[in-house]
Amino acid sequence: MKFGVLQFPGSCDEVDALHAARRVGDAELLWHGERDLKGVDAVVVPGGFSYGDYLRAGAIARFAPVMEAVIEFANDGGLVLGICNGFQVLCEAHLLPGALLPNANRRFTFRQVDLEVVQGDTHFTRACTPSLSIPAKHSWGRYYTDESTLDELEAEGQVVLRYASAQNFNGSLRDIAGVRNAAGNVFGLMPHPEHAVDPLTGSTDGLCIFQSMRLAVEGARV
Amino acid sequence: MSETLPQQQDAALPTVEDALALGLTRAEYELVCEKQEGPPNQVELAMYSLLWSEHCAYKHSKKLLRTLPTEGRYVVMGPGENAGAVDVGDGLVCAFKVESHNHPSAVEPFQGAATGVGGILRDIFAIGARPIAVLDSLRFGEATSARSRYLLDGTVAGIGHYGNSIGVPTVGGEVYFEEPYEHNCLVNAMALGLAPRERLVRSAAAGPGNVLVLFGASTGRDGIGGASVLASAELGIEGGTAAEGGEPGPSTFPSYDDKRPTVQVGDPFEEKKLLECSLELLEQGLLVALQDLGAAGLTSSAAEMASKGEVGLDIDVRRVPLREPDLEPFEVMVSESQERMLCVVEPAKVDAVLALCEKWEVGGTAIGTITDSGRLRVFAGELLVGDMPVRALVDDCPLYDLAPARPSEPVYPVPAPVIAPGASPRDTLLALLASPNIASRRPLFEHYDAIVQSRTVRRPEQADAAVLQLPDGSALAVSIDCNGRRVAADPYRGTIEAVLECASNLACVGAEPLGTTNNLNFANPEKPHIAWQLTEAVRGLGEACRALEAPIVGGNVSLYNEGASGPIYPTPVIGMVGRLPDAARAGRLGFAREGDTIALVGPFAPSLPASELAKLRGEALPDGLPDIDVGAVRSAQFAVRGAVGVGALSSAHDIAEGGLATALAECCLAGGLGAEVELGGALVHGREAVHGSEAEHGGEDSGDPFEALFGEGSGGFLVSGPVSGVRSLGRRTYVRVIGTVRGQELRIALGGQSMNWSLEELSSAHQALAELFS
To answer: Who is most buried in A15, A120, B534, B645, counting CB within 10 A?
Structure first.
């Protein structure tokens, strides 16, 4: 099982994601200017401020050469996880529905948040317990889409994670913290599971996301 | 570049008046003429005026700084480089330094604070270390002032904008609100970096024939004159520099509009690329020397590299990539455009260096060569537009002796009382917890990313010091501190207290000090009473660092911090880095387990003058603080550090602002547990040895419960744990068992009185800053 973690100029959490992924498999960085995914089994689009997040968070990164390969990989059913800025990039690339708007408080905010796993049977949450404590830190994390799409997402089981009661500091509609695509192979979330993999630095509740991906990849191989 | 062309003959050479306007004195101008063997031209005068400014030359502080201890067993790189560095074992060094960006932040808080962070980060990666943490130390006027809130808001946003975007966690800091900072806020930023020992690089240029490469952002007109006009003069009102004895303007909402062009604008994305590019250049062994461009831009960087390497430099300003056309040569040389680095490269490696700059999308350009002339020569294409001896530029600025005199009258205004006379101890604790100097900093620090890079073992409010894990399982601890009010009351003892406080914070997480950095923020040193503050503070700093074996590895001096309302409190901000052997045993400040024994540890002798309570009561500063037994405090630190390090304690917290009762409340709130405490006669009557000690200490029979509960002083710790663990401390220091962790209330019995507070009411008082910052 090998994860590939994208690296854009301005990525900040790519090394954290690399180390988190290495707790459950092999992992390597994939440079934004390359189109070759080097045969990885799953892609992680990490947090940070790709290309400075100028224009709009994720708006420039979606045009990076490596993203052409990621889009193709996703369309072929490959597993793609977007964390924070990565979630924004995947929305901009239309691999995921909706958009991330500036936080309701209009400030970058860092908090440890409690999450409710709404869908525990996805490729990304199969190994997770029903509630998770994971840090979130962002300025553009308010999940938004129109009402009918929200209804549809909920009906189709695409809302995977929600902020627990009183934890939704960014004003996300319907407390949505993470969504998947209709096919179930692309998943994005604003909180940072890669920062919750070591008891010394906080919780280990984020590890289950990476473990779930491993199960999905190895299950697909069997 | 031709060596034969004559120097540009400028018809209108600048005059002595131009030199005065740039901040030089008449005598300094004459000395420049002597060094130049004639009047300097515009380029030369601009460069001298910057390099001979207080900011670059430390001309009023250098003699004092030479008295500080700078050597020790962990020191790998001392003062003089971009940052200092200490050995942290396992082949790694920790680079660290604190710097100020006070005047730019007073003029434009967001960009001032942001570029302050950008500047200190460049200092760290300029010596080859990856920045791993930022801390900040902020001072504003009273929190009730609209201007303070505006500055606080902009500063926090600016620090967050830069640190968050570049992927370096902001792990700690401090902020105080005091009237003397109303017109001159302080914004100090400290950064830490980590490097393999052999990867450290110095800034000395070497090897005539080698190439000088500038990389990073292009150069524009931003920040021109920042070091001289902005950083080395008092902040005036309505622009302009406040002359001594001059008439101050209106005292509220001063406009610094005409200084705004001297503030630089930061771009963290550009710096993130610059950082990664610099570290990769070093990793591939492509550089001879590296230096960041900070205050005084290319002028300072080039001159310092040449001076350290005892070489000369030829620079062609025409090759410098410009942000806007038609910059004059002197503008190119003095621009403070951010996110630029300068390196020295062997000719054969230039192509590889430029290719790597290309990869990271940071423009790289060869702009000059190293020579053996000992002169810094500036060309505009073929034309020689400036020619100066490097030595004169960097080393020959006159140094001034201070004329210190202890002030005969109080320097600072008496604060307005904000607490009712005769307030009960119960109400007093709530008022203290709600005081902006003590209230929870969560509304501020939650706008900073404290965890990126995955090293943060203790986040803000989890422990007295931030703790960052290292690859070998050990950890770094770092603290930044200074209580300016206490330094104002007694510059010598107040500074010792600040150093001790940092070391006590480290002890509470189990860390041993490795080294210290400092930022000396003072008012105008040409005034005798300010010179006295500075001299006394540096004396205290040196003594304390010697006693703790925590030498100074680098720092910064920021003078002329005064505005229309007078001088700031003398504020020698201390940053201290330590190491603990086992990251898993890092201490916490919050009570952790029902039934744990609570003890007061150390030679704590609380007193009220200069305390937070004295301020709330509207009392004038005392003339002097009580004597400190530094050896006894050090023993207590040693004991606490040892007990934390072997896991004997559940919590450890240093007693600081607001005294013992405030510390108890903080431990309760951090752990979500109550406490039952019986102070009995221990503090009020000054003598009670529980274990191992017969010494007399404490309230000296004053009988004042306020002193026992809220008095301040060095050397007090509040610890909790199993009774055996707590008592083990008594082999080395004073220990008094005072209570038990229990329930959801804080109960204190003292001299026949009993008080109690619910955790909810303590917490509600402690959240007072949220209302001020929203």
So the answer is: B534
